Amino acid sequence: MGCTACGDELLVAFSCKGRGFCPSCTSRRMHDTAAHLVELVIPQVPVRQWVLSLPRWARFLLAHDPELITRTLDIALRGIFVWQRRGARRAGAVGPRAGAVTFVQRFGGALNLNVHFHCVIPDGVFVGDDGGVRFVELAPPSDDEVMEVLRRVVARLERLLRPRFASRETDARPLDAPSSSAWSGAKARPRCHARAA
After folding, report:
1. d(C-alpha 88, C-alpha 133), whole Å
2. Which residues contact 12 (CB under 8 A, 6 or more apart)?
3. Alpha carbons 23 and 128: distance in angstroms, whole number
4. Higher model confidence: residue 171 or residue 52?
5. What is the three-class DSSP state of 47?
6. Tell me: the pLDDT tens digits for 81-137?
7. pTM
8. DSSP H helical ranges for the chain
9. Dihedral through CA 74, CA 122, CA 97, CA 87, nearest 10?
10. Whole-Å CA distances, 10 to 2, 17, 27, 109
11. How far is CA 59 from CA 42, 66, 106, in A?
């Protein structure tokens, strides 16, 4: 890597000329994506990160079926959006709309198979207002409200995933048994990231 101003050169380790992951390119891509989202996609409103992690038996199902990932994400987002719209209607909002940006992560910190979702969701809803759009901020969810959203999402995911798990029980690898206690590993961890306007 060379400086065009002074001509000085710097050796960059793990360049793209080798096999595997390039930390330089991965970091640059991550930075560029974050800048794009902050500058052009996500409005200047408070946002919350919701993370949906699934039991191991469900992760294996999703890892083999991209359509199932889409359907699982749809169920999770609908559960959160329903909660947001109800709260907005109670606050007097008419025709509230919600939105999200989601990154599907396929690996955990140790590069283990761990399909999970990181969803950045505005801490409120958008409503039409005299030909424009207005943001209606909602109160942060209580622990009880998060658990209620999670209960509804888990019930719907059970209906979607359990029949598929049953059809794959003859798989050579033992998976976590799908019982109600297996969903204790399911988590929704909302974290607020208020942004300055």
Report:
1. 15
2. 1, 24
3. 43
4. 52
5. strand
6. 999 999 999 999 999 999 999 999 888 877 788 899 999 999 999 999 888 999 999
7. 0.74
8. 23-36, 56-63, 66-90, 143-167
9. 100
10. 6, 16, 18, 30
11. 29, 11, 9
